[in-house]
Design brief:
Blueprint (H helix, E strand, L loop, with lengths): L1 H74 L6 H5 L8 H6 L9 H8 L2 H4 L3 H39 L10 H10 L3 H38 L1
Helix pairs in contact: 1-8, 6-8
């Protein structure tokens, strides 16, 4: 009878150890799969951050280009050379568009959006990386979008003012009416106020983009150290 109980105990223990071993192996397999998913997530983000940095640098360059042109107009206000301005080469945007328009901000963040929607971002264990991801893709991005929205609102107001008061400036040509309208336009105190405000917004936006680029690079370095 004792042998029977002993044998039964050994068999029970063997089954228990077998179950425990299987659970341990399954748990290890799950941990390994999760670690691989985290690695793939961070690697994908790193690749996107490179593209995001390049896009942001180009965007900042365009904002500063618009800022410099309008800053020159403000510096020479009341004595701008109209003939020179009409014939000026402005890298793809004419003078009026440079003055009134805004630059839409559409960075390449489709990889992040995909990883966020499928829960991959939530698996990242490093809290510093999670914080910096939030700073890049949520906090800084929303601040930049707000700045662009403010500039777009000012663009709409200036465009309405030009439609009512300077319709010939909406036709990009070198006719005498266009030049006459441009002369009056660049001596209009209301236009002066618009350009000052627009350039203030551009300067603010350029600073936001600079901080955004810094955050992108900081996140990239941190991810590098993790993978």
């Amino acid at each position: 009878m004792k042998n029977l109980f002993a044998r039964g105990g050994i068999e029970f223990l063997a089954v228990l150890l077998g179950i425990s071993g299987s659970l341990w192996m399954e748990n290890n397999r799950q941990i390994k799969l999760e670690d691989e998913q985290i690695y793939n997530t961070l690697y994908s983000l790193k690749e996107e951050l490179i593209t995001l940095n390049e896009y942001s640098e180009r965007y900042k360059s365009k904002i500063l280009r618009d800022y410099r042109i309008c800053d020159k107009l403000l510096t020479d206000w009341g004595s701008n050379d109209i003939d020179s301005l009409v014939n000026q080469e402005l890298e793809g945007r004419n003078l009026i568009l440079t003055i009134k328009a805004y630059r839409a901000f559409h960075p390449p963040i489709s990889i992040f959006n995909s990883l966020k929607s499928d829960g991959s971002i939530g698996l990242i264990k490093n809290p510093n990386i999670k914080t910096k991801i939030n700073n890049v893709y949520e906090v800084s991005f929303s601040h930049i979008q707000e700045g662009v929205d403010n500039e777009r609102n000012l663009y709409q107001k200036l465009n309405e003012y030009m439609i009512l008061n300077y319709p010939y400036l909406l036709i990009d040509n070198q006719s005498s009416k266009y030049k006459t309208a441009l002369t009056k336009f660049l001596n209009d105190e209301i236009v002066l106020a618009y350009i000052i405000e627009k350039n203030s917004m551009r300067n603010f936006l350029a600073n936001l983009i600079s901080r955004y680029i810094t955050r992108i690079n900081d996140l990239n370095i941190l991810i590098d150290s993790e993978i």
